[in-house]
Batch of 3 targets.
Target 1
Amino acid sequence: MQNLFAVVLAAGKGTRMRSKKHKVLHEICGKPMIDHILTSITALSPTETILVVGHQGETVRQYMGDRVQIVEQHEQLGTAHAVQQTRPLLENQAGITLVLNGDHPLFTAETFQKLIEHHQSTHASATVLTATVEDSTGYGRIVRGESGSVARIVEHKDATEEERQIQEINTGTFCFDNEKLFAALRKVDNDNAQGEYYLPDVLSILQEENQVISAYEMEDVVEAMGVNDRIQLAEAAKCMRKRIIQQHMQNGVTIVDPEATYIDIEVVIGEDTVIEPGTFLRGKTVIGADCHIGPQADLTNVTVLDSTKVQYTVAQDSHLGQQSTVGPYAYLRPGTELGQEVKIGCFVDLKKAKLAKGAKVSHLAYVGDAEVGENVNVGCGVVTVNYDGFRKHKTIIEDGAFIGCNTNLVAPVTVAEGAYVAAGSTITKDVPADALAVARERQVNKEGYVTKLKARLKK
Ligand code: UD1
Ligand code: CA
């Protein structure tokens, strides 16, 4: 196979984002834009991938680690100048160079593949990926000659009124014969409205040298979308969301209202699961089959096994076993691990809590830093008192124990297997197996007290 070099341009200032953060690090469906681009590139198994950075380059470099080669463009003198910076790495190597912009997050690997195939089959020295859009404002326009082949690309700012009517745009994505690219780059000048070295000018230069230049017009124009400001960022996210959701529906997931459902790119969902509106599935969340999620579940890095139901719940970094039910109105904080057939009810707050099969915390409780055994029942209003103002301590409730309502379990403390704790207790000492712990005042009934009180007050 031929060498394939991928060059991603991301040195620009991204001024229109008005952000402290580099443009390509802005997220779309749970991942920075640059990651979406790299996912599509990686699918092509390139020989080398090079990212050109400049403005805020250090933060991009840090984020990328050693996933790609990074080249610095110290001064942003234009897209041709940006590609020039890769000369030490690429010049004189035979192969195809795919150049693309870091601010076009929606391109798929299939589109790149088709572009490369078109480039090869037309024996071109350069091929531009084009799209015909409703509003071509701001983009470079594709000027085609009489034969219909590409004559040149004219930037919006350099275009005549007539050229501005052209709706076919340069998506910023090109394929080049690598050696011819670097030869032509030497000839690019900056004699234009922006005083920049334009990469599209490479096409006219090659054209003049009677090289074949070619254009591949993509079908799905949505993919061609560039992100220059936050309005376009939101639009791109919407398109990506739609794409993700359609994929899940094709895989057999029911999504009741696709427009009111937010699923990050890496989320996995099993067949016959129903996702109700107002649901956010984020990060590396994995949902099993036959689950019912939502309405209004906000899950980040949560694993949910088959046939579990979660509604009106916020959960993070948690694991939910199968056939369990969570919510409405539960908050599962990091480190929550539910076994199978667990029930977590209304206004329950869990943190670093491990609940075994069949455990129930049905109402108004806080269980944190705890291990809860099989079939334990945690009554309404129970609190694990895990914090002494300095450190967190652990509560252990063994299998089959029953914790009465409004109990405080002052950790560190263990309620052993099968034990009962009377409602309203404040437990500060371990409870032995099968014992009943009562840790509250005994009740005293003062007969006739109220009658006497009322008689006295009337006088
Ligand atoms: C560019 C194209 C235009 C195309 C459009 C598609 C040029 C001259 N124009 O315009 O034909 O329709 O993309 O979105 O190529 N960059 C650098 N170094 C620089 C300048 C830019 O790395 O010196 C990077 C930017 O970070 C960005 C990309 O190149 O990722 C495109 O630059 P941008 O300034 O956004 O170009 P456009 O005006 O959008
Ligand atoms: Ca741009």
Target 2
Amino acid sequence: MIISSADFVVSNQDVKKCPNGQLPEYAFIGRSNVGKSSLINMLTNRKSLAKTSGRPGKTQLINHFLINKSWYLVDLPGYGYARVSKTSKAKFQKFITNYFLQRKQLVCGFVLVDVRHEPQPIDTEFMEWLGANAIPFGIIFTKADKLKPNALERNIAAYQKHLTEGAWEEMPPYFITSSSKGMGRDEVLEYIHSINESLR
Ligand code: GTP
Ligand code: MG
């Protein structure tokens, strides 16, 4: 899929203020610093469409980016970010869960996980919560450039084993990506394209 336009539309903390209309959207969620905003820039081929930072907690709002004037990519704050106060953490969690529960235009969420780490309860529990609420999702492994091919393969296999021996009968759709190397770009965009097509 060719990305011919990518435009920032709006940021807010309230799902009710997200763009009106029926355009389908795809949201990126995961721990702070996992690479959600970087992935949006990689997918759209824009250097700084979404704001990124080496310090966790950069994205604090629901951000809508309109792609090819026909669908949205949505950048969300990270969950489980420890350095904000407890009250603002609870507020974060609330507007993120409200977004997933209430946003009718959301056709697929992508849960991002850092491929270097073992499965973390915060991520697998979030996936289970999505499943329990019948919200379709895929998994995007990030930062694949940081591992050698063997280690990469081993970690993916371990993740798959963990999920399929746990809550899931089969592995959800998954993608192996590196935002710095552009890896996985075509696969993620093709997947989005196929869903867009199925909705026409
Ligand atoms: P929050 O907005 O804080 O929740 O973080 P985020 O998930 O949006 O992460 P962000 O995209 O800001 O990236 C965090 C850090 O990881 C930055 O320093 C990025 O340059 C780095 N990073 C993201 N993706 C990759 C990747 O694929 N490879 C490498 N090597 N670094 C990456
Ligand atoms: Mg971010």
Target 3
Amino acid sequence: MAKVLVATVKPFAKAAVDSIRQVCKDAGYEFILLEKYADQSEFVKAVEDVDALIIRSDKATKEVIDAAKNLKIIVRAGAGYDNIDLEAATAKNIVVMNTPGQNSNAVAELALGMMVYMARNKFNGTAGSELKGKKLGIHAFGHVGSLVGEIAKGFGMEVYAFDPFIAKEKIESMGAKAVDTEEELYSTCQYISLHIPANEHTKKSINFNLLSRMPEGATLLNTARKEVINEDDLLRVFKERDDFKYVSDIAPDIKEELESNFGERCFFTPKKMGAQTAEANINAGIAAAKQIVGFLEKGDTTFKVN
Ligand code: 3PG
């Protein structure tokens, strides 16, 4: 009987766990749950004899992967898989997948909510501004980015996008104005919403050159990864521009410094919560479980990322 471990420091909604359990039961698999573990060593111990693993932002390090003697597949129930040591997994012939698109709507809704929150001065009672008529630049037009664009149009925003991996015609057919360079996006848009993954090309790529170009009343919105920001440059922009705001679902390393000096102009969620809705948990959790069944039963490798 194959063993499936769901290891989540930040647990799924109960309904999602129940659904994953059911998919495993129907397939004749044993279901094991490790939630809210306090120490990585608990995760390392739990993987020892499992065949399949479902995680969220949990760190599937080389230590975890090496400890997992029978592991054949890891599914990241979500989009970003920068928390998984792909090299270590590939070296052990372990298939790694994500579940693209399954939690995107939750993240997109949060992005718009955070935009309104900052435009209205964090609901502090002073006169803020409206999103209507403002230019929003979407940096990477994948599942989340394109949904943010769609919702923003409902607010009457003008939506621009930059994505070197998607044809301009496709971007335009989805209702955004495609621009040719990152520089053009940042120079044009008062609001920028980040949807790039964290990898060796993007880490620290959101820098002074880009941020300093943003028009008056700039707001940078990050529901992607903190690693893509050059934090020294971010701090410099905060110091040089009193109109600049930063709102992020992932607190930066310089959180305290930003909050104590520029508290009115920044906001960070206490815990990454973009994908933290029952719907997103259920969608991503069920997709992950079904992908495991598809792989173990039929060798289906759709959504393999390594
Ligand atoms: C993702 O990459 O899917 C999001 O960042 C959500 O991550 P989470 O499942 O850890 O909330």
